[in-house]
Amino acid sequence: MQDSIIITQKDLDATPKPRLDSILSTCLQIPRAQALQLIKNQQVTLNNNLCIKPSTQITLNDTLQISIPNPQPSTNTHITLDMLIQAKSEFLDISVVYEDNELLILNKPPHIVIHEAPSLKEPTLVDWLKLTQPPIRNLCGDLRYGIVHRLDRQTSGALAIAKTPHAHNALSTQLKTREMGRYYLALIDNPLKKTTTIECYMGRHPKNRLKMAKLASYKNSQDSKHSALRYSKSIFTPLLDSPKDTLQLIAIKLFTGRTHQIRTHLESIGRHIIGDTLYGYKGKFEGYRVLLHAYLMYVLHPNGYNTQDCKKHIFKAPLFADMLQFLEQYFDKEMLDEVLAPKHILDCFTHF
């Protein structure tokens, strides 16, 4: 299968440099990295000649052809949804928050891993998607199942799934520009006195490879030049204190999306999420999973992305029974309903 593009003046005007890779990225509305992959895979011809140099200059009325290979079928077609649920009952708890032709937003239960890995011996969300959602195919011919971001195994909450290549590109771009993101809820063991912003450079913990750690302060620009360090920023705001224990419900907004960012930032100021023994929680609630939930998601719908009338949508992923029951046991019910209102949480971050 081939797609043909005849270069117009509009295409040239919309591209920073009239290079092959940039033109492909603009015309196909794909990331430049994917355009480079097309060229590397010898899928692109320029005026009927194979073109393998990304820097090749493109001019008006040039013709590009992109060959799209047939994807390889999955090798695990013998697995059924019933078999998946029998292996891990948590898949029954997956619920759909929103769905249309472009976008699927799920409420992921705890204890489900998102991606497959060679060392993993249990089914994943990708396995569930393979059985419940048609795959999308990018121009390189790769089959994918629309996941653009992730949640840790024990973390629950909102997860966006792209259902088309266009949606996948739009959501991926929004993640980079922070036009898309989530507000989290967490239960911590040592209350915050006020809204707290944490900015630092993170990296792999030097003594425990399962963890991340704050390795340099935000102001230490010299240390931040190390290639293994990644800038990170979060804001934590108190929502409600428990009258029964030294527990606090907090809301979190992320400005970056680093691995274990919330857990690492809290550990750096001597706070821990209930159940998070990996990052140092010690207390009477060690039997619980990490009580962290992606509660609200904000996103620009892919259909309207990059248009003037595009509006931000807010989706709520309800709390799962384990976390909700914990809250109702240790917090005042009436006050809890008040602080869990989406508008209240959004108002907490109005000035950030």
TrEMBL record:
Keywords: Isomerase, RNA-binding. The keyword Isomerase applies. The keyword NADP does not apply. Residues 18-78 form the RNA-binding S4 domain. It catalyses: a uridine in RNA = a pseudouridine in RNA. One of its GO terms (biological process) is enzyme-directed rRNA pseudouridine synthesis. Pfam families: PseudoU_synth_2, S4. It comes from the Bacteria. GO terms for molecular function: RNA binding; rRNA pseudouridine synthase activity. Belongs to the pseudouridine synthase RluA family. PANTHER family: MITOCHONDRIAL RNA PSEUDOURIDINE SYNTHASE, RIBOSOMAL LARGE SUBUNIT PSEUDOURIDINE SYNTHASE D. This is RNA pseudouridylate synthase. It comes from Helicobacter equorum.
